[in-house]
Design a protein that fits this description.
Blueprint lengths: L9 E4 L1 H13 L5 H16 L10 H9 L10 E6 L2 E5 L5 H19 L1 E9 L6 H8 L3 E7 L20 E5 L6 E5 L6 H10 L8 E2 L9 H5 L3 E2 L5 H16 L22 E9 L6 H16 L15 H13 L1 E4 H13 L14
Parallel strand pairs: 3-4
Antiparallel strand pairs: 1-11, 2-3, 4-10, 5-6, 5-10, 6-7, 8-9
Helix pairs in contact: 1-2, 4-5
């Protein structure tokens, strides 16, 4: 599940126009047109689903990273190893979305042949919303699993020295309608949610992170500048993050734990990530229709649970995001004044048509 909230001051913009604008900006930085379109698709899909921390708020940072030479706009992604149901890729420090796309696509192709497949990918940059790749597997009647490590910004449970990233993990299961999708950081929230809150000058819940004195704080800057994020579920979140560190970092042959360069300022420092992508062919276990019917039964049982006091209804994982996507597709994506202004400045700097206004006015 993901946390999302509507900005206080918003301009609602068409997802189609926002996608085109983001792709145009990336293409002007030397990103091949097809790759630019895909990166833009991943960003806007995050905004549609309410994962605003992984949406177009990242665009200006990506542009800055390319200018500083810490993000390769034209990576030569290569296969390092390919054997049976396994493969290993090297992302050449390009957009992580491109390596993750190839990783999951390769896993799906191999799972059709072998039933189950795992593909690792090293030397990626930021992959965006990890659930994008598991949903792509579910759309092809597969169970999809994806994860990646990152810069060490969180100490181990009981420790003080950062060793792990937020290490997101996702799994998606097809059903007779929308898939069931778990897409989560192993910390209480992704670090991007703190950056987005800091950009908007908004407070954060006290259980998201600690300041440099080890005290809970509602100031995202206090967490980002010397503080630490909190593990989801305490030592259990840390344990899952360690498994992601092994599968994404150790097994891929990429950097892991304290070897990953620190990310101090998004847009200026390199982002190094390594991932693992797993696909499971359901038909090797039972007919697809039977599996989807059984999934529908599971979903119905979850939804029919008596709500706890103060809870309006019970959802399955991913359901609120699908509902929000439907709404935002219809009404437009809300952008805070800060993010809207960033996009407006990019349009002026790179002479990109800024016709994404749906409601509101130029900042």
């Amino acid at each position: 599940m993901t946390e999302s909230s509507e900005p206080m001051e918003v301009n609602r913009v068409s997802s189609q126009k926002l996608r085109s604008f983001a792709a145009a900006i990336l293409h002007k930085q030397g990103v091949p047109q097809e790759d630019a379109a895909f990166v833009a698709e991943v960003l806007v899909e995050a905004d549609l689903r309410g994962v605003d921390s992984h949406g177009v708020t990242r665009l200006a940072g990506y542009v800055s990273m390319m200018h500083k030479g810490v993000l390769n706009p034209r990576p030569a992604i290569r296969v390092v190893h390919d054997s049976g149901a396994t493969a290993a890729l090297d992302g050449d420090h390009g957009f992580g979305m491109l390596g993750a796309r190839l990783g999951m696509a390769t896993a799906i192709e191999k799972a059709r042949q072998f039933g189950v497949a795992i593909v690792t990918a090293r030397n990626l940059s930021h992959t965006g919303m990890v659930g994008f790749y598991t949903m792509s597997a579910a759309s092809q009647d597969m169970i999809g699993i994806a994860m990646n490590n990152g810069a060490g910004i969180v100490p181990p449970f009981g420790g003080l020295t950062p060793t792990h990233g937020t290490n997101p993990f996702s799994v998606a299961f097809p059903t007779e309608s929308d898939p069931v999708v778990l897409d989560m950081a192993t910390t209480m929230v992704a670090a991007g949610k703190l950056r987005l809150a800091a950009k908007k000058g908004a407070p954060i819940p006290l259980d998201w992170g600690l300041d440099r004195r080890g005290e809970p704080t509602d100031d995202p800057n206090e967490v980002l500048e010397g503080g630490v994020l909190q593990w989801a579920g305490g030592y259990k979140g840390f344990g899952i993050a360690t498994a992601v560190e092994v599968l994404g970092g150790v097994l891929s042959g990429g950097l892991f734990a304290r070897d990953v360069p620190q990310l101090k300022v998004f847009g200026q420092d390199p982002i190094i990530a390594n991932g693992a992508y797993i696909a499971v062919d359901i038909r090797r276990f039972m007919p697809l229709t039977e599996f989807c019917q059984r999934m529908t039964s599971l979903v119905d049982q979850i939804r029919s649970s008596e709500p706890a006091p103060g809870v309006e209804r019970v959802y399955v994982a991913g359901e609120p995001e699908f509902m929000l996507k439907e709404q935002r597709t219809r009404e437009g994506i809300p952008l805070s004044a800060e993010v809207y202004h960033e996009l407006f400045e990019l349009s002026k700097e790179y002479s990109a048509p800024f016709d994404i206004i749906q409601h509101g006015r130029e900042p």
